[in-house]
Amino acid sequence: MAPFDSPFGSPVEDPAGGPGESALTGRISAGPHPLLRSEVLEPQLRHELDNLLPHYIRAEKVLLAEYHRMGVLTTGEVTALDTELDAAADPAVVGAVAAETMSDIAFAIERTVTTRIPELPPAWHVDRSRNDLQATAQACYGRARLLEVEAALIAFGRSALEAAHRHETVLLPGYTHAQPAQIISPAFYLSALTEQVLHALRRIDAVDRSAACPLGAGAMAGQELAWDRDRMARLLGFDHVSEHALRAVAQRDWALEATAELSLLGTSLSRFATDLMTWGGAGHGFIDLPDEWSGISSAMPQKKNFPVLERIRARTAHLTAAHLGIAAAQRSTPYTNSVEISKEASAQVPAAFDTALSVLRLFTAVVDRLTFEADRTLEACRSEHFGGFTLANLLTLRARIPWRAAQVLAGRYVVAATAAGLSPAAPDPGLLRRLAEEAGHTVADADDLLRTAFDVPGATGAKRSTGSTAPEEVRRLCAAHAAELGRFEGRRLAREARMRRGARELDETLAHLAGTRASC
C-alpha cells in the first residue's frame, strides 16, 4: 500500500493493511483516509496528548498492578512494561508512532511500549477495553481541573472579603430596576459576591464528590477477569467506583455537571461585572482601577475605560456555550459508549475550564485593585430620597398610620419635596404634616421622623435583620464566609492528599516489584 504523510512522524505503510504482527485489526483492510486523519483523528490525538496522556499512563500502570495481583503477569513482565510506560509518558514519543496506530492515543501508547520491549508479554491488555480506559483518563482530567477551579474560587472569595474590609465604612447607593432604592455599602455588596462564590463552591464540591472511577467496567458489560475495582479506584485517588458497567462508559456526568456549574457561575459573575461597568461609567464614577488595568479611546482623549470588565463579562458567555454544546452532543445518543460521547461531546471541556480559570484570575485581579470613591458614593446617597421606605415604616410604627396609607403618604412627600427642590438632608416637616392632614392623618413628630428617615450615615445601621446592611451584620457575614472558605480549602487539600496517597501506593507497589525482580 502507498505511504501517506502525517504530522506525527515520517510516512509509513498503512498499519491496518497487512497480516503481520504490527496490524491493529483483522476486521478492516485499510487505515483511516488522510482526510479523516487530518480533520478528525490527528486533532483529537493532539488534544489527548496535551491533556490526557498522564492520566492514560497512570491508568495503564494501575492495570499492571492488577495483572500482577491476579497472576496474569509475572513480576519481571510488570517491571519491563512499567519501564516502557514511563517512556510513553513523553508526548513526542507517543506522537512519533501515531501514524501507525490510526492516530489513537490508546493504540499509540500500546505501540510505543511494544516496539521498545524485547519480549512482549502475551497477556498484556488481555480482557481490556479502550472504553473504560478513556473514560477513566477523562474523569481523572476533569477531577484535576475541578481542583484548579476550586482553588481559584477560594482565592476569588478571599479577595472579595479583603475588598469588603477595605471599604467597610463607605456608603453606596443601592438600586432596583435601575432606580435608587436603598443605601448599602461596598462591604455589603462584596459579601454578596462572596456568598455567590460559596454557592458555586458548594455545587462544584458536590460534583467533585460524585466523581466515580470507571476503570474495570470494560467495553460496556463488565470484564471476565476478577479485577479489584475498589483497589484500582483507590490507586487512582477516587473514593468509589462507578458501580454499573454500562453507565460507567455511557455517561459523562462530570463533564455535564462541571460545565453546568461553570455556566451558572459565569451567569452570576456577568451580573457583578455589569454593576462594576455601570458604576465605573461617567454617570456614576463610583469605582476606579489603576491605570495599568484601564484602557483609553483612540479618538476621545478624555476617556478612561475599563475594558477588562467587558472582557470578563464576555468570557462568561463562553461558559454557557460550552455547556450547551456538551449537553447537545450527548442528547439523544444511544445509552452506551460512542465516539459522540467519549470524544465529540467532551471536546469543549478543556476550553470551558480554561475560560473559567481566566475569568476568575482576571476578576480576582480586578477586585484586588478595586477602589470605591467614597466622596462620590456619599454624594449620590445624599442626593436621592433613599429613606422613603424608612419614612413609611416610621409613619406606621410611630404615627400609627396604616401601612399602605403610610406608603402613599411617604411617596407623596418625596414627589412634593423633589418638585420643591428640597434636599433629603433639609426636609420640610410642615410639608409632611400638611400632606398627612390632607389624607386624614396626624403626624406630630414630623421633624424627627424626617431626620431619622433621611439620615444617610445611619441608613445601613437602621437594618436589624440577619443578612442586612447593618455593619455588625456585614462583619458577621464576612467572618462566616471566611470560615466556610477555609473549610472548602480543607476539603480541596484532602482530595489532593487522597490522590497523592493513591499515586504513592501505586508507585511503591511497582517499585517493590522492581526491587523484588532485581534481588532475584
TrEMBL record:
<feature type="region of interest" description="Disordered">
    <location>
        <begin position="1"/>
        <end position="29"/>
    </location>
</feature>
<keyword id="KW-0456">Lyase</keyword>
<dbReference type="InterPro" id="IPR009049">
    <property type="entry name" value="Argininosuccinate_lyase"/>
</dbReference>
<dbReference type="GO" id="GO:0016829">
    <property type="term" value="F:lyase activity"/>
</dbReference>
<keyword id="KW-0055">Arginine biosynthesis</keyword>
<dbReference type="Pfam" id="PF00206">
    <property type="entry name" value="Lyase_1"/>
</dbReference>
<dbReference type="InterPro" id="IPR022761">
    <property type="entry name" value="Fumarate_lyase_N"/>
</dbReference>
<comment type="pathway">
    <text>Amino-acid biosynthesis; L-arginine biosynthesis; L-arginine from L-ornithine and carbamoyl phosphate: step 3/3.</text>
</comment>
<dbReference type="InterPro" id="IPR000362">
    <property type="entry name" value="Fumarate_lyase_fam"/>
</dbReference>
<dbReference type="InterPro" id="IPR008948">
    <property type="entry name" value="L-Aspartase-like"/>
</dbReference>
<feature type="domain" description="Fumarate lyase N-terminal">
    <location>
        <begin position="124"/>
        <end position="312"/>
    </location>
</feature>
<keyword id="KW-0028">Amino-acid biosynthesis</keyword>
<dbReference type="InterPro" id="IPR024083">
    <property type="entry name" value="Fumarase/histidase_N"/>
</dbReference>
<protein>
    <recommendedName>
        <fullName>argininosuccinate lyase</fullName>
        <ecNumber>4.3.2.1</ecNumber>
    </recommendedName>
</protein>
